Amino acid sequence: MSYAGWILLTASLVGLSCGFIGVLLVLRRMAMMADAISHTVLLGIVTAFLVTRELSGIHMLIGAIAAGLLTSVLVQWFHARGVQQEASIGVVFTTLFAIGVVLIATKVGNAHLDVKHTLMGEITFIPWEKIELPLIGEIPEAVFILSIVLIVVLVAILAFYKEWKITSFDPALAASLGIPAVLMHYVFMSLVSVTTVAAFDAVGAIMVVAMLITPAAAAYLWTDRLSVMLILSGLFGVISAITGYYIATWLDTSISGSMAFSTGLLFAFSFLCSPKHGVIAKFIRPAETKLSA
Question: Which CDD domains match (predicted)?
Fold first, then answer.
């Protein structure tokens, strides 16, 4: 595959994984958790580096996932004790992210670990960091990891589709039916953490947040069916990735930033043109009503 092809495949895998997970985040009204976890994983990455003094390896993934789960537990703990959820998210993620930034500035030293890379990522390096797989050959490590994450996300959503649907729309009904809503919440937060971490190094925090929230929000405007929303959100993520790449090539600018920008363009189109919730449709319907009257 060509250099550009690997970049597009990597970004598309991010768009699919984040798109699917993002639907459940939006339906659960927890969209800002995506922003929180995508920033607080920095603390886990820095902590793992300080312990091992190595910039690559499974320990980095474990540290980042642990930070994501810590974020979720702290937010839930504060919320259960009367703090509004939005305030809990804001307090936890800014504090943990700030600790990560301070540790980078004071403890990391000359290691190649910086805040700019954390925010924007560097997807152009992806095709050069390859691993050898039996029967397949050399592929970028990020493509391999993101493919596994996508499979895990798909299996988890399909295997517990009914449970996700009920706990997202009516947690009280889920509890009355014997569905462990709290357990499902932490399983879901684990999926969010794994997906965020997998995409984090390749595309940075800004694109992760954009891909987790915006395609799902756009899909929400087009349909009321969860299954269709999941498909549309994943599709919108892929479209944003491809469109953003060509915008970046045209303008000679940040690829990840352009992909995040493309999600905003797609949402704007959906906001204007969706048949039920779109601005244009809302203007047309009153006019049709007056004509029929």
Answer: TM_ABC_iron-siderophores_like
Q: Are 219 and 201 in contact (CB under 8 A)?
A: no
What value does the mean pLDDT take over residues 91-95? 89
CA–CA distances in Å: residue 288 to residues 279, 281, 284: 15, 10, 6
Q: What is the mean pLDDT of residues 222-251?
A: 93
Architecture of domain 3-213: Orthogonal Bundle (1.10)
Is the pLDDT at 19 greater than 50? The verdict is: yes
Task: Provide the pLDDT for residue 117.
Answer: 54
| Nearest alpha carbon to residue 96 among 56, 54, 61, 66 | 66
Q: DSSP assignment of 241-288, as one string?
A: HHHHHHHHHHHT--HHHHHHHHHHHHHHHHHHH-TTT-HHHHHHHHHH
CB 156 within 8 A of CB 187: yes
Q: Where are the domains of the chain?
A: 3-213
DSSP class of 293: -
CA distance 263 to 36: 19
Distances (CA, A) of 209 to 4, 77, 132, 195, 213: 23, 23, 30, 11, 6
Phi, psi of 139 (to 5 degrees): -140, 155
pLDDT digits (tens, 9 = 90+) for 201-234: 677 777 888 899 999 999 999 998 999 999 999 9
β-bridge mates for residue 130, sequence order: 140
CB 48, CB 63: distance < 8 Å:
yes
